[in-house]
């Protein structure tokens, strides 16, 4: 609806509330109109008034919760959401509203309880089953999440959303079932192809045949390549730490960047990326021209079309030559768009640790450590190896003010730590960490994760450690900190970081190294291992500490014991790791950009020659 018609609707609704002040429907109409206009704070008054006038109507209670959620007031919204379930337990969306709020509040055990209660009433409500799987995954129970989703997909084999989430969950499972993981992703690709009638876009190679010594022309100005990036994470997010170097240093005389923001959350990082994308030239990558305050940002698309066809058409109209998908099969992904082949070359990069399984996706960017030769069967895409490392890390600019040399007194005992996403925690990991700590007298373990804000999850985690022989008194569990700066300064409390496995860390590993904390990773040999298992090995190799890479759990423990006993080395690493990181290929932004450009040219050449 246009802005003018919305204004008319608002005026009409306001007249109704004036004419019928005790009619809840009139107030709810005004609430709905104001929400459509993006006026959540104004919508709260009529929403609450409708709920007061009709206290036994579940929809009115849920509407108040919805408005408060849009305002970021999750705690206040929860009683209204719960009241809607009490009034109408047979409507799935009311259960879902409660669970969504509880998940945002990291009240995971309560979210699990509501999911199970809802499914007891509505056993065929697949959205609730998917939410239950999400709550289990957040508790470090990936196998339990798989066990929930598997039967749902078996009974509804055309359910693309469940199939997508099941693929994503399979990356966290321990022990890894490699064959099952690959089968799930390949089956997802096949399901996507037959899910509904659609027609792929066709793309014709450049009309001018290749001139010797010159790259094939693209569809941009003066034959430039137009390179698109789709992501729901173009904000303060781990993805942007590795994306921003590309935006800063890509040669604009040959490449035009177009960004597709699929989640419309905007912050300072978004605005910085917008300035980089909008610049026609970047003579100084650290000081892009200021954004024009009027009108849309050049080459920055806020994706508001909900359907895949509309979004695909937008990409085609933008004449994108090479399209990077930075979501894979994570939350916010757009397989409904990618399957239509909206660009001649589509690339799976950065945001997902496995193959997408989608036939329309041509390439997957990796390196020779994450994906050594011989593991090509793990991807439906063609693997392109960007050696020596497929990533380039840019620490947050404010982080330069932190001091990486501070650490606890070693005489009080070595502190091991992990700040990885709790989805990566598992019983096998707990057992190896227990062996390591038990082999290092007076050592302790510090874990920090959002899921650990939940007291029930904390108790369950300590019980998991106790079950594998580690005294819970030696484990400190911490929830999230209030600010990013406080998060980084928590590294002052540990001596050695422990990478998770089989799903290794990426941003957390880079952060630890930046803060002077050595990281021990477990990267089983490949072929056989998956990309997710070996990212830590790629990062540690890039900064020149391959001695911290283990290939077996036994070696992981041995490296930890030896490092914990070498206090002189720990002190040396504390002062040298940050400069080593910043001087390494992992942070060489111009050098990485040149390798990235060479990869772009290779992919485009393959298309121009009709090889893809």
- DSSP E strands, number: 13
Shape category = globular
Query: What's the structural domain tally?
Result: 3
Helical content stands at 40-55%
Strand content: 5-15%
Alpha plus pi helix count: 23
Structural class: alpha/beta
- CATH architecture type of the largest domain: 3-Layer(aba) Sandwich
Give the integer mean of the pLDDT values: 94
Low-confidence residue ranges: none
Task: Report how far apart the termini are.
Answer: 41 Å
Rg estimate, integer Å: 26 Å
Q: How do the strands line up in the largest sheet?
A: 3-2-1-4-5-6-7
> What is the third-level CATH name, the topology of the largest domain?
Rossmann fold
- CATH class descriptor name of the largest domain: Alpha Beta
Q: Please describe the biggest sheet, giving its number of strands, its sense, and whether it closes into a barrel.
A: 7 strands, parallel
């Amino acid at each position: 609806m246009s802005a003018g018609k919305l204004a008319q609707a608002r005026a009409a609704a306001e007249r109704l509330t004036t004419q019928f002040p005790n009619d809840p429907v009139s107030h709810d109409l005004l609430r709905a109109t104001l929400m459509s206009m993006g006026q959540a704070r104004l919508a709260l008054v009529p929403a609450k008034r409708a709920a007061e006038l009709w206290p036994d109507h579940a929809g009115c209670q849920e509407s108040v919760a919805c408005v408060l959620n849009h305002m970021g007031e999750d705690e206040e919204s929860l009683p209204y959401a719960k009241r809607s379930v009490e009034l109408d337990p047979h409507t799935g969306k009311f259960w879902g509203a409660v669970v969504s709020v509880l998940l945002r509040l990291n009240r995971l055990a309560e979210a699990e309880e509501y999911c199970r209660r809802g499914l007891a009433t509505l056993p065929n409500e697949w959205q609730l089953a998917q939410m239950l799987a999400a709550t289990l995954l957040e508790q470090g129970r990936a196998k339990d999440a798989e066990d929930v989703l598997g039967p749902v997909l078996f009974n509804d084999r055309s359910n693309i959303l469940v199939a997508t989430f099941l693929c994503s969950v399979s990356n966290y499972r321990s022990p890894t079932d490699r064959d099952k993981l690959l089968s799930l992703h390949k089956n997802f690709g096949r399901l996507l192809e037959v899910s509904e009638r659609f027609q792929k876009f066709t793309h014709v190679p450049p009309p001018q045949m290749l001139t010797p010594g010159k790259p094939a022309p693209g569809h941009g100005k003066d034959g430039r390549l137009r390179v698109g990036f789709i992501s729901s994470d173009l904000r303060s997010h781990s993805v942007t730490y590795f994306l921003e170097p590309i935006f800063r240093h890509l040669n604009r005389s040959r490449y035009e960047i177009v960004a597709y923001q699929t989640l419309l959350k905007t912050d300072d990082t978004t605005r910085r990326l917008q300035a980089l994308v909008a610049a026609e030239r970047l003579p100084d990558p650290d000081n892009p021209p200021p954004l024009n305050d009027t009108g849309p940002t050049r080459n920055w698309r806020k994706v508001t079309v909900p359907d895949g066809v509309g979004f695909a058409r937008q990409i085609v109209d933008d004449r994108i030559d090479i399209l990077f998908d930075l979501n894979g099969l994570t939350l916010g992904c757009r397989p409904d768009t990618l399957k239509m082949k909206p660009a001649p070359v589509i690339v799976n990069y950065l945001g997902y640790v496995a193959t997408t399984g989608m036939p329309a996706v041509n390439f997957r960017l990796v390196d020779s450590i994450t994906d050594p030769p011989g593991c090509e069967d793990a991807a439906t895409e063609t693997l392109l190896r960007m050696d020596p490392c497929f990533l380039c890390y840019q620490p947050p600019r404010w982080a330069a003010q932190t001091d990486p040399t501070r650490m606890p007194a070693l005489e009080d005992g070595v502190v091991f730590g992990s700040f990885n996403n709790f989805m990566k925690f598992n019983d096998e990991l707990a057992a190896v960490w227990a062996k390591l700590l038990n082999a290092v007298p007076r050592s302790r373990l510090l874990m920090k994760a959002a899921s650990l804000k939940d007291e029930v999850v904390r108790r369950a985690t300590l019980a998991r450690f106790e079950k594998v022989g580690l005294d819970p008194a030696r484990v400190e569990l911490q929830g999230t900190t209030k600010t990013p700066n406080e998060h980084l300064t928590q590294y002052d409390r540990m001596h050695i970081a422990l990478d998770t496995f089989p799903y290794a860390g990426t941003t957390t590993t880079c952060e630890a190294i930046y803060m002077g904390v050595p990281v021990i990773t477990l990267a089983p040999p490949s072929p056989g291992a998956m990309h997710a298992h070996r990212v830590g090995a790629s990062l540690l190799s890039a900064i020149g500490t391959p001695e911290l890479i283990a290939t077996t759990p036994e070696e992981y423990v041995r490296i930890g014991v030896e490092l914990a006993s070498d206090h002189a080395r720990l002190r040396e690493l504390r002062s040298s790791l940050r400069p080593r990181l910043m001087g390494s290929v992992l942070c060489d932004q111009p050098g990485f950009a040149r390798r990235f450009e060479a990869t772009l040219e290779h992919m485009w050449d393959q298309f121009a020659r009709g090889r893809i």
